[in-house]
Amino acid sequence: MSPDFEARMTFVGENNRIKMLIVDDEAVIREGLRYTIDWVELGVEVVGEAREGREALRLVEQHGVDLVLSDIRMDGMDGLELAEQLRLHHSHVQVVMISGYEDFSYARQAIRLGVNDYLLKPVDIEELTAVVGRIVQRICQKDKQGAMQDIQLWLSGTARHGLAYGQEPPASLRGVQFRILATQFAEFHQRFASVKGESYEQVQRSWLESLRQSLERQSLRAFSVFDHENLLITLLVADEELELGEWDELLDRAVTALSPDGEGHIYGGASRIYAHLEETAECCAEAIRLLGLHVLGQGQVLTAGCYDKLMRERKLPGLDIADTVQQLVAALFKQDQQEVQALVAGMFGFFRDSGYLLPEIWKIYEEVFALLRQRLRQSGMTGLDYGHPGQPDPNIYNSYAGLEAVVMEDMQALQQLIDKTGMDKSYWVVEKAKKFIIDHYRTDLKASEVAAWLKITPSYFSYIFKQSTGRGFTEYMNEMRIEQAKDLLATTHDKVFEIADKVGYKEYKYFVSVFKLHTGMTPKEYRGLRVGKDAAAESAETQERNPSAEDK
């Protein structure tokens, strides 16, 4: 897409009158040219008269002349020399030559010097009026284009760089009320990802022209720039005060007209109404921020009151991140793409139903992705030392479906990495085994029972379990049970044999021997040590809160 795509705008100048100078060495001719034609009606102001070229050059500089109506033959500097000096030093000045000599050489030389037209005396008034009218139109159009470019550059810089842009608003921009309207296509990535170059520029031209025409029908002047291929910033100018309700109705009508059949749906965000152009940067940011509310179905034109009201009223439920990560890990190691897709779809269904905004979703997803990489790295995977560069372009991925597509691309990349590193499905098998062990460790659980539940052979289970955890099944079970026993010894008054039974040891002596092997002391010694430590800590705390008279 061309970065120089030019947005067309409507401009009405404060004063479009063209300044004209009449140059002739005969006073009667000068007077006749000045008063025979109604120059004001043509949009021309006669700012002076000159007898010859040097005087004319001085008046051109003094009055900022746009058009010179000059005789060719004059005493002093003649018309041709004047035309040459104007071409060299005031090239913007338009020149019409008048001569009583039907000599083709004069006309040819005048044309070479850039003279716009060449008329013969006696001058035909209708012909002169037509010639000057065309020149006035060209000058006005050029000024209009220059003013529009000035406004466009200022608006573009202000929208993109905010207050940091630091440029004064163009002097030609006047109005009573202003408002910023930001518009963009919904579901841009799904609709236009494959539309490139000239094809998409045509879409932009249609979008821009339709909005301009619609706003002009509402008696608003509009100046628009594309700040992004899917973000059109429009400065709206009203020449009389309008009520907020009138503004909102006009904008809703204009934006709705862009997609009357719902095809290529465009929505907008409208800033507050403001009277000083210095507030434009802030209002651009406000209008753009409002676009983010579109995913919540808040209407086709989102107004300034929407954001604060919505933020006050929303209560977002939290996503169970740990459970989400666990399910994704299992599905990824199973290489089950359908299950991964269903999990991602479920996650986005939760976000959609709960009313999450896209930046809020991305913040949670970054946490999910970081934990996901950590879990995969713990399983022995490599090549995971990277993060996200930040939220995908919000003007392109501006819908739940667009952001979901980005997340699915990440999941597919992880699946490919798992496949590339040669890791099989053993990891998710072990994860399921661990969950089963936690639920059944109080029983006299055997490795063969876990293997049967997983529907794999005991030898294969023992192999993958040790590969994953670094410990054999019995050692893993003993560590888990002893940790549970230590907690019960420290926090309950249960007898030791009761605790042994609770953590899955049916033989008291075996429990004691395993406990001593892992801790270096018997269960009773451990309890006594812990009770002693707890008592000492409690005594110290009591002493601190109630110091004796001696301590005082």
TrEMBL record:
GO molecular function: DNA-binding transcription factor activity; sequence-specific DNA binding
Annotated region (Disordered), positions in chain: 532-552
Domain of life: Bacteria
4-aspartylphosphate carried by residues: D71
GO CC terms: cytoplasm
Listed name of the protein: Response regulator
Keyword flag Transferase: no
Keywords: Cytoplasm, DNA-binding, Phosphoprotein, Transcription, Transcription regulation, Two-component regulatory system
InterPro entries the UniProt entry points to: CheY-like_superfamily, Homeodomain-like_sf, HptR, HTH_AraC, HTH_AraC-typ_CS, Sig_transdc_resp-reg_receiver, Tscrpt_reg_AraC-type_HTH
Localization, UniProt: Cytoplasm
CDD domains: REC_YesN-like
Domain Response regulatory span(s) in chain numbering: 19-136
One BP annotation, GO: phosphorelay signal transduction system
Residues annotated as domain HTH araC/xylS-type: 431-529
